[in-house]
Amino acid sequence: MVKAYLKYEQVASFGVVASGTTACLPIKSPSNLPLVVCAAGDIVLVWNLRTGESIARLGNLMTRKAGPINAIAVSAGGETIASGYADGSIRLWEFSGYDEDMKAAFDENEPEPLVTFNGHRSGVSCLAFEKISLGKNSKGDIRIRPSSLVSGSNDGDIIMWNITEGKGVFRFPAHNDALTRVLYFKRESSSFIVSSSKDGIIKVYDVETQHCVQTIVGHRAEVWAMELDPTNSLLVTGSADAEIRGYLLRNVTDEFDPAKATGGDLDSFEHETVFRAIGSVQRYIAAERVTSLHFTECDGETYMLVGSADKNAEVFSVREAKKAEAHRKRREKRKIEANQKEIRATSEEKGWDESLLEEKLRTFRETMSLQLDMSDFVFSVRQIRMSKRLRSICFLDGALEKRVKSKNETELHLIVQPKDNVIEVHKAIMNSSKKRRKEKLGNEGDDMQTRGNVNEIKKLITLDFPGHRSDVRSLSLAPDDNTLLSASDGSLKLWNVGTQKCIRSMKFDGYGLCTQFVGAEGRIGVVGTKSGGIHVYDLGSGTLITEERSAHTNEIWSMCLNDKLYEADLLVTGGSDKRVCMWGIDEVLTDKGGKLTRRHVLEMPDEVLCVKVVSQRDRAVLVVSLMDSTVRAFFMDTFEPYLSFYGHRLPVMCLDVSSDGLILATGSADKTVKLWGMDFGDCRRSLRAHSESVLSLAFQPNTHYLFTGSRDGTLKYWDADKFEFVCEIEGQRGEVWSLATSDDGEIIASASHDKLLRVWRRTDEPLFLEEERDRRMDEMFESALVEEDLKEAAKSKKGDIGFMKDMSKGEAAAAGKRSLETVKGGERLLEALQLCAEEEERRATASDEAQNPMMLGLSSEAYILRTLEQIKTAELEEALHILPLKAAADLLDYCSRLLSPDCKFARLSTEMLIRSCLYLIKLHHSQITAGAISRKLISDLQERTKSHTDKIRKRMGFNSAALQFWQTELVERDDTPFRDAAARVHNMKRKKFKSRHMGFVR
C-alpha cells in the first residue's frame, strides 16, 4: 500500500512592518486618513499610521507560491493596489478602506485579487498605473478606476495590461538590464510609456504606434529613479552620480513664446520627438545613489523630494512653466548686464568711440540668448539628514496631525522607510517663496541655487513594534502552541499566533542567539546573547527576573532543558568558550523569582554549536556538536562519554533526536543531513538535503518525520525511516535560522533572514510521493520553458534571428508567456480539433452510428467553442501559438461557422472568437499570402467579423452615452450621493467582469 503523508499549509506570516524589497507608498483616503501601503514578504500590508494598526492584509495561497513582492503601485484614487512578485506574476487588489473581510490574509475567507496577470519571464521590478485626473463634485473626489497598467521586469521587458479585459496588450523588449521605473501618461491626444533601466538608458514608447520614439542617453551609470511632475511636463531622473537631470516635454511652453524660450531656435524644439534635455542640478550631498523621487503640491507650491541610499534627502521647490521662463529672462538679463560691463571696460582701454561701442552692444544683445535650464525649474530649499540609512522616502498624502497654516511656512509630512524594518513619519517646515527670497544666500548677481543648512526634522511617529530590527536568530514555541518567543538584536518579542500580533516586547543588551520557554505554563522566557549573557524574563509582565551577564565569555549558541517543561530543573547552555554549563532554575520558577545557579561545567575540546538533552534507556544523555565537525554524547548523571559521531566534513550547525530516542539527525555546513542510530552511533544514511548549509532541523514529535531548513531559503520535509524526501514546505523565503514544532506535531514555526515569522499547520489532506514527484517534474518543465524564452529574447535583443526577431526593431511583441498551463491549453485545443475532424469524417461515411461520447452530445462547433472558453483569457494567445498550420486552418474554419448569422449560441463569445482569428491570421500571415489557407475562408471571416464588430460598436456607443447622461444627472441632483451611486456602478461592472460575459447596460 502506498504510504500517504499529511500536508502542511501556512496559516500565519508576521513580524515585518515593511520589506526592503520595495518602497512604501501613500494611499489617498476619502476620509483623509494617513494610510501607507508596503510589502511584507508575499503580503501587501496597509497601515493606518495614526493608530499603528494594519487595516488590510492582502495575500492568499497563490501569493505564497509566487514569492516575495518586488514592486507595488497605487492608483490615483487609492482604490486599486497592484503588486508584482518574484515569479513574474502581477495581482490587482481592490482596497476600500476599513473592510472587515480584508483584515486577515490567512483566515477561512482569504482575499482574492481583482485580476491576476502572468506574462513576465522573471521578477517584476516596477509597476505604474495610467495617470488620470480625478474629477470633483460637491461630495468630494470622484474615484475613477484605471483601465491600464504598465509593468517592467528584471529581464528588461515592458508589458502593458488591460485591466478591464484582464489580458496583456503588448510587450516591449525595451532594455538589456533590469528596469527600475516605468511611467505611463497621456499628453494631448498621445499616450506614452517612459522607462528607465540599470543599463543607463531611458526609452520613450508611443502606445498608439507601439514603437520606441526616443532613446535618451547621457547617464553615466544606472538610472535608479524617475518621476513626472504633477503637470506631466517635466521629467526628472536620478542616478548614481550627483546630478538630478531634467527633460522638458514638447509643447510644454505653449503658454509663452517658445521661440524666446529656446533662444530663437524654434525648429529644434518642434522637431524634438518627446523630451528635450534641459540640463541638471547638483545634489547637496551625493555620496550614494538616488533611491526615490516624489512630487507633491501643498499651499499652492510644488515640491520634489529626492532620497538617496545613505542618510540624506533633499527637498526642491518646483517652478511652473511661466515662472521658469521669467527666471530664465532674469538670468539672461543679468548675464547681458555683466557682459556689457566687460565691453564698456574694453572700450575704455582701447579708446572706442561712442558709435562703435553702441554697435558692439547691439550686436551682443542680438546674439545673446539663454535656453531654459533645469535650474529654472527646480532649486533646493531644504537638506535633511536622517539617523538611519534610507530605503525610501516620500510625501504623506493623508493628515497625521492638523497642519498649521502660515503665510511664511509650509508643513510637509514625510514617510521614511529605513533599512531596518521600520516606518517613520517626520515633519519638515518649508519657508515660503517670499521668505526664501529674503534669506537667499550668495551674491545677488550669482545664479547659484539657494543652499540651506542641513537641518534636523521632527519625528512624529515610529511604527516598529510589530517587528524586529534585524534577523530573528532564534524561535521557541510555547506549551499552549499559540505563543511564540523570538529573539533578535537587542529585543525579545512575544507573539500570538492566532491574531499575528506582538503581545510584548522586551529590550536587553546584545544580540539574542537562542531562546527557551521555562515552566509548565511557559510564563518565563530565557534568552542567550552574543556577548555571553543570559537574561530571564517574566513574559506576563515583561519584567526582567534575573540575568547573568558573564555566563559565558563568548557567544551562547544553544540552550535547552534537561527534560519536559514541567519536570525540568536544569538549563543547559553551550557557547564558543568551549564550555557546556548546567544552570539550576528552581529558584527562577518560584513566584518571587531568584537567580540562576551554575551547577556543573563541562569542558569541551572545541567551540560548542548545539546542545540537546534526550532520554536513552531511561538515562538522560547530553548530545553536543562541536566546531571540529564531530558530535559527542555524554551521560547527564556522571558526564561520562557515551558515543561519538564522526562523518561530517564541516561543522554541525544543528541537531535533534526523535521522541523515542532512537534516531539522531545532524545538519552540517557541508549541505548534508546525516541520520544516526543512538544505540551504537552508526550512520544509517547521509542525505544531500540542500544546496547550501543546513542551519536548523527538528523532528516531528512522536514520529520519525524530519523538517530541515537551510541557507538556500527552503524548508523540506523528510521521512527518516524510508530515507525519502517527502516535499518542500511552500512559502519559505530567506535563510531559515530557526525551527520549532509543537508537542503534538500540528504546528511548525520558522524564523528566516527576511525577518518574517511563518507558521504552518497540519491539515487532513493526504500527500502522496508520486504526486509530489509529478508536480516537481511539471515545475522543472515550466522553468525550462521560461529559461528557453529568456535565452531567445536575449539573442533577439542582440540582433540574432530568433522566434521574437521583431524585438531587434524596437517593435512590440505578444504579452503572453509560455507556461505549463498554456502548453496544456494548446494540447487540449489540438485534441479537440482532431476529435471533431474524426467525428465529421465518420458521420460522412456512416451517419446512422451513435455520436462519440467524448463530444458530450455537442456539435463540432459547440465542442470547439467549449474548449476555447476553458482557456484563460490571458493564456489564449500562447495556447494558439502551439497549433500547427493545419490545425490553425481548421480552427479558423470553425470560427467562421461560429460567427455566421445562423449560429446563435456563440454571441456571448464573439469577442474571444474575433481575437483568436486575428491572432492566427497575424501569426501565419506569410503562409496565408502564399496560399496555404483558402482565400475564400479569409474573405468570409472578414465579412462576418466586420458585421459583428459594427454591432458591438453601436451597442457600446449607446451604452457609453447612457452612462455619461446618468453620471451628469447624478452629479446635478443634490439628494443622491454620487459616491454611493458610483460604487453601485462599479460593483455591477465587477460582477460582469468576473462572469466573463459581455453584458451591456440598456
Automatic annotation (TrEMBL):
<dbReference type="GO" id="GO:0034388">
    <property type="term" value="C:Pwp2p-containing subcomplex of 90S preribosome"/>
</dbReference>
<dbReference type="InterPro" id="IPR015943">
    <property type="entry name" value="WD40/YVTN_repeat-like_dom_sf"/>
</dbReference>
<dbReference type="InterPro" id="IPR051570">
    <property type="entry name" value="TBC1_cilium_biogenesis"/>
</dbReference>
<dbReference type="GO" id="GO:0032040">
    <property type="term" value="C:small-subunit processome"/>
</dbReference>
<feature type="repeat" description="WD">
    <location>
        <begin position="645"/>
        <end position="686"/>
    </location>
</feature>
<keyword id="KW-0853">WD repeat</keyword>
<keyword id="KW-0677">Repeat</keyword>
<feature type="repeat" description="WD">
    <location>
        <begin position="465"/>
        <end position="505"/>
    </location>
</feature>
<dbReference type="InterPro" id="IPR019775">
    <property type="entry name" value="WD40_repeat_CS"/>
</dbReference>
<protein>
    <submittedName>
        <fullName>WD repeat-containing protein 3</fullName>
    </submittedName>
</protein>
<feature type="coiled-coil region">
    <location>
        <begin position="319"/>
        <end position="349"/>
    </location>
</feature>
<feature type="repeat" description="WD">
    <location>
        <begin position="172"/>
        <end position="215"/>
    </location>
</feature>
<dbReference type="Pfam" id="PF25173">
    <property type="entry name" value="Beta-prop_WDR3_1st"/>
</dbReference>
<feature type="repeat" description="WD">
    <location>
        <begin position="687"/>
        <end position="719"/>
    </location>
</feature>
<dbReference type="Pfam" id="PF04003">
    <property type="entry name" value="Utp12"/>
</dbReference>
<dbReference type="InterPro" id="IPR001680">
    <property type="entry name" value="WD40_rpt"/>
</dbReference>
<feature type="repeat" description="WD">
    <location>
        <begin position="149"/>
        <end position="171"/>
    </location>
</feature>
<dbReference type="Pfam" id="PF25172">
    <property type="entry name" value="Beta-prop_WDR3_2nd"/>
</dbReference>
<dbReference type="InterPro" id="IPR036322">
    <property type="entry name" value="WD40_repeat_dom_sf"/>
</dbReference>
<dbReference type="InterPro" id="IPR007148">
    <property type="entry name" value="SSU_processome_Utp12"/>
</dbReference>
<dbReference type="InterPro" id="IPR020472">
    <property type="entry name" value="WD40_PAC1"/>
</dbReference>
<keyword id="KW-0175">Coiled coil</keyword>
<comment type="similarity">
    <text>Belongs to the WD repeat WDR3/UTP12 family.</text>
</comment>
<feature type="repeat" description="WD">
    <location>
        <begin position="62"/>
        <end position="96"/>
    </location>
</feature>
<feature type="repeat" description="WD">
    <location>
        <begin position="216"/>
        <end position="247"/>
    </location>
</feature>
<dbReference type="GO" id="GO:0030515">
    <property type="term" value="F:snoRNA binding"/>
</dbReference>
<feature type="repeat" description="WD">
    <location>
        <begin position="729"/>
        <end position="760"/>
    </location>
</feature>
<dbReference type="GO" id="GO:0030490">
    <property type="term" value="P:maturation of SSU-rRNA"/>
</dbReference>
<feature type="domain" description="Small-subunit processome Utp12">
    <location>
        <begin position="861"/>
        <end position="967"/>
    </location>
</feature>
